[in-house]
Design brief:
The protein has a domain at 127-191 and 379-406 and 419-434: FAD/NAD(P)-binding domain. Helix content is 25%, strand content 21%. The chain contains 11 helices and 16 strands. Flavin-adenine dinucleotide is lined by residues 1-5, 129-130, 166-168, 171, 175, 229, 372-373, 405-406, 416-419, 421.
Length: 435
């Protein structure tokens, strides 16, 4: 996880339809996942502060990364003037591992995969692509997995007792679609008709701003603290949003931000008396049938169909983005700051040429896929008519295949997803070990 942010989903996030009636709920509760959050946070060594905000439940933290002076001032202004929630972000420290030249713990190579390899029970088969699996028609269990050698295109069929799919949402959907009965006569049946549908991402808005320098901020200006998952802040609204005009959309969002952490040298700053910050709002996207992954008629060089993605923002997301824009404006104003574009903040030679095509900074929200938090397509649920996997991530009609990554999400929430993916994976794996 590049940003290193690890926020928990809230109790409400597991049952959002209870509040607004739209779409599915998760088949599990916060209480069921909470011990697994505890474990993963301990395992990864997460920093954070217990702020007691129900939209982002407290976790297990090994310490706090202090906010910059300007961030503290910003936080106190948005809290006192606007009554907005404000917390230190939670996540990884940026990279004691960089200094030590190790893989960071925010990458599986530096954490979970490393631990797995240490057991001596893991073999990595590199440079192979998983194409599909086949089931034994009598047992209705997966028994064979086809993999392709990426150096020479040769296909190899492996026998298997258990398959844990975590190839990332779209790749996992591709494997599932290639293994489904519709395209593979030895494949599994999805009786819900939902496989590949209800794909989600987060919708986002990114804005830069300047604020008057806080006292003592000179020190941090000379030696700026790192920006990291834990070294930053959040305005974590969730669906508890401030009433700015009417709220004409479902669900909610949070705003990630930082001030004085970008390490911009003084000579590049247009006004050395100001501190530079950014705010990035990211919001929940509703599960909609039309947003989907299917198999393209085109194939890759190995003859395997590639994924075809259809996705557009609905009115709900676009209305949410307008609300995000207004809360960002209000927050910056409350902190006596000004929203500015990059060229107004920095002396970049030919800067406008460079920044004009940056979609992150455009007035309208960047397109789906930009935030790279894709989830959904094989949602978990309470019965096989309405979901692709059961509450322990198993395909209903092929119980030895577990969908562990974002593909199993029935709703997207607004928080960065990977901590929850890991907690769900642990829960599902402990269950399969038990059975
Ligand atoms: C720039 C950036 C910043 C991010 N920041 C955050 C953050 O701060 N917090 C957060 O929670 N999330 C963050 N994310 C999202 C996070 O990275 C993903 O949620 C997470 O990596 C998903 O994990 P995964 O194991 O499902 O997929 P991946 O990490 O993508 O791993 C999938 C693996 O499967 C392999 N694979 C794919 N298809 C096949 C196949 N057919 N056969 C064999 N192998 C295959 C891939 O090569 C890859 O190694 C960020 C993402 C990006 C891009």
């Amino acid at each position: 996880m590049g940003g290193g942010i690890t926020l928990r989903l809230s109790s409400e996030d597991f049952h959002p339809a209870k509040k607004d009636g739209f779409g599915p709920n998760w088949p599990i509760s916060y209480e069921e996942i909470s011990p697994h959050y505890d474990f993963i946070e301990n395992f990864c060594g997460i920093y954070g502060r217990k702020d007691d905000i129900k939209e982002v439940p407290n976790g297990k933290y090994i310490g706090e990364i202090p906010l910059t002076e300007n961030e503290n001032v910003f936080g106190s202004k948005v809290k006192s003037k606007l009554n907005y929630p404000f917390i230190q972000s939670r996540g990884f420290d940026r990279n004691s591992s960089v200094k030590e030249k190790n893989w960071p713990k925010s990458s599986s190579v530096g954490s979970s995969l490393k631990k797995a390899l240490d057991t001596g029970n893991v073999q990595i088969i590199s440079n192979y692509l998983v194409e599909s699996f086949e089931i034994n028609k009598i047992t209705e269990l997966a028994s064979k997995l086809t993999i392709v050698n990426l150096e020479n295109g040769h296909k190899v069929v492996l026998d298997c007792d258990l398959i844990l799919l975590c190839a990332s949402t779209i790749s996992t959907l591709r494997i599932l679609l290639n293994s489904e009965y519709k395209s593979n006569s030895s494949g599994f049946k999805d009786n819900s008709g939902k496989l590949g549908k209800y794909l989600m991402d987060h919708i986002s808005i990114c804005r830069f701003f300047s604020v008057p320098k806080a006292k003592n901020s000179n020190k941090s200006q000379d030696n700026p603290p790192d920006l990291s998952g834990a070294g930053s802040f959040f305005i974590p609204f969730g669906s508890n949003l401030p009433e700015i005009d009417d709220i004409n959309f479902h669900r909610g969002y949070g705003i990630w931000g930082a001030i004085n952490r970008l390490g911009i040298p003084k000579f590049l700053q247009k006004d050395a008396n100001k501190s530079i910050g950014f705010l990035i709002a990211h919001g929940e996207v509703l599960p909609r049938e039309k947003n989907s992954v299917s198999l393209s008629r085109k194939t890759d060089e190995w003859g395997i169909p590639i994924p075809y993605i259809e996705f557009e923002w609905s009115e709900n997301e676009l209305n949410m983005a307008k609300h995000m824009e207004k809360t960002i404006q209000k927050s910056v104003k409350a902190a006596n700051g000004k929203l500015k574009n990059i060229n107004e903040l920095m002396n970049i030679p030919l800067g406008s040429l460079f920044t004009k095509n940056l979609i992150a900074l455009s007035d309208s929200p960047p397109p789906p896929g930009y935030y790279i938090h894709e989830v959904g397509g094989a949602p978990m649920g309470l019965n096989e008519e309405n979901s692709v996997v059961d509450k322990f991530n198993r395909l209903w009609r092929c119980k030895n295949v577990l969908v562990l990554d974002g593909a199993c999400w029935p709703t997207s929430s607004w928080q960065s997803p990977t901590l929850t993916m890991m907690a769900l994976s642990r829960r599902a794996c402990l269950n399969i070990k038990k059975t």
